[in-house]
Design goal:
By secondary structure, the chain is mainly beta. A hairpin with a 6-residue loop joins strand 25 (about 315) and strand 26 (about 320-325). It has helices at about 5-25, 260, 410-445, and strands spanning about 35-45, 45-50, 65-70, 75-80, 90, 95-100, 105-110, 110-115, 120, 120-125, 130, 135-140, 150-155, 165, 175-180, 190-195, 200-215, 215-220, 225-230, 235-240, 245-250, 265-270, 290-300, 305-310, 315, 320-325, 330-335, 340-345, 350-360, 360, 370-375, 375-380, 400, 405. It contains 3 helices and 34 strands. It is rod-shaped. The chain has 3 domains: about 5-45 and about 65-85 and about 410-445, no CATH class; about 90-165 and about 330-405, no CATH class; about 175-325, Tick-borne Encephalitis virus Glycoprotein, domain 1, CATH 2.60.98.
């Protein structure tokens, strides 16, 4: 039989494999973070009918080249364009993530560790962050101080009982700002809000009473026994200022007299002891009395409408930090992921807390990773090993973008061009078989 028949058959098989690769690329043109593959051909064993010889000076005969007949082609390699980053697709889903750079997300399924560029994650019923196929997204946890512990990776959670709430803090200081109309000589009513150690909300209704003008000083005092409600219900507690405490303003400029208004003391009294007064404000062990600091230097008295704005805490004039504000119980309201992969929870009381960090890993030879389906890769002897800890995505050349997915890096124009050349190659090899068959037919016809 003719060797060309078998060479052509090997060519058909190799081109068929190449078409399989092209077909798979096109099938995954819209697969999240899919990395396209390409195939190269390799020639196979040659039959040598004459070896090469060198020139012979004695005989005067020159050298001759070897005579070799090739026996077809085979698949040389199927490589993955794993280093080529796909374009970004905006989804606005906070759990969709894309990595820029060369790193991979780390996931775990059935005790096995895999790697992926596809960041289309979601929380499951337990609050764990998982892939679309249910593999756990891995990262680092936080300690009791809220610090990231970069130890061996473990499954990450975006919601769990330990992260549902943040602790309340009692209020020890309040502030008043705004304006009292300079032409008004009437009483002004406003409310002061504060919290206790359990996060209960209190509201005191206070009245500032006009006391008149003495020289260039206009003064107001706070009416005694301001009523206090707790979580919207009236209590027996009352609030008052010392008898000599006054809200004083310069009648010429409308500015507050800082000496009298910068550090006032509000006294909260619980005459029958039915409330947990020790949980409120500053308490020295008393069952009937606690205090709050009051800063009213943010107020002024000019020719504009009266509008008083109470607020929690007093701003430190040196550091600018708000002190003594307190806060209610915080309930988790939202979760987001920042560029370093930190999972940040937001709470109803304004708190934010890092509850974990997504770890990534990189490989010395990422092209050596083995595809295992479902957008996952496994490490091989030629890719390099995973150390079990991972790395911060920002420690190298990348970042994580939330609300975005990496698209497939398949180039359709290139795939269709390769498809044409593959089709022609397959067609040409089939013609070799046809022509070889015709030659054999001529040989058989010699006996007629």
């Amino acid at each position: 039989m003719m060797r060309s028949l078998y060479s052509a058959v090997s060519g058909l098989k190799a081109h068929q494999t190449r078409m399989d690769v092209i077909g798979n690329n096109i099938a995954n043109v819209n697969t999240v973070a899919y990395k396209s593959q390409s195939m190269t051909f390799s020639e196979v064993f040659y039959q040598t009918t004459q070896t090469a010889s060198g020139p012979n000076a004695e005989s005067g005969k020159g050298g001759t080249n070897a005579m070799q007949i090739g026996l077809g082609s085979s698949v040389g390699s199927i490589s993955t364009a794993i280093a080529t980053e796909g374009a970004s697709e905006r989804t606005d889903n906070p759990y969709d993530m894309a990595i820029s750079g060369s790193a991979f997300f780390i996931v775990s399924s059935a005790g096995n560790t895999y790697f992926t560029r596809a960041g289309n994650f979601k929380p499951d019923e337990s609050g764990a962050l998982v892939t679309s196929s249910g593999a756990n997204v891995m990262g680092w946890q936080v300690d009791e101080n809220g610090e990231i512990v970069k130890d061996r990776v473990s499954p990450l959670y975006v919601s769990s009982p330990e992260f549902t709430y943040t602790d309340p803090q009692k209020t020890t200081a309040v502030s008043l700002s705004g304006n009292i109309n300079a032409s008004s000589k009437e009483s002004v009513t406003t409310t002061l809000n504060f919290f206790d150690t359990l996060g209960n909300s209190y509201q005191a209704t206070v009245t500032l009473q006009y006391q008149g003008q003495d020289g260039n000083i206009v003064s107001y005092t706070m009416a005694d026994n301001a009523t206090i409600s707790k979580n919207g219900e009236k209590t027996t507690m009352t609030m008052a200022l010392p008898d000599d405490a006054k809200f004083e303003f310069n009648a010429l400029t409308g500015a507050p007299i800082a000496e009298s208004m910068s550090n006032m003391t509000l006294t909260i009294t619980d005459p029958d002891g039915t409330n947990n007064i020790q949980a409120i404000g500053t308490n020295d062990g008393s069952d009937t009395e606690s205090t709050l600091r009051l800063d009213a230097t943010g107020m002024k008295m000019i020719a504009d409408k009266t509008a008083i704005n109470p607020s929690l805490g007093i701003k430190n004039p040196t550091t600018g930090v708000l002190e003594g504000a307190g806060k209610a119980v915080g309930k988790m309201t939202a979760v987001g992921i920042n560029e370093s992969g930190c999972i940040v929870a937001s709470y109803s009381n304004g708190d934010t807390k890092i509850i974990g960090q997504i770890a990534v890993t990189s490989f010395s030879n990422p092209a050596g990773l083995e595809k295992v389906g479902e957008n996952l890769y496994s490490a091989t002897l030629n890719s390099g090993e995973f150390d079990g800890v991972g790395e911060d995505v920002t420690s190298s050349d990348g970042k994580i973008t939330s609300g975005v997915l990496e698209m497939s890096n398949v180039d359709l124009s290139s795939e269709f061009t390769t498809m044409i050349t593959t089709q022609r190659g397959y067609q040409a090899n089939s013609r070799i078989i046809t022509v070889s068959d015709s030659m054999l037919e001529e040989l058989i016809n010699l006996k007629r």
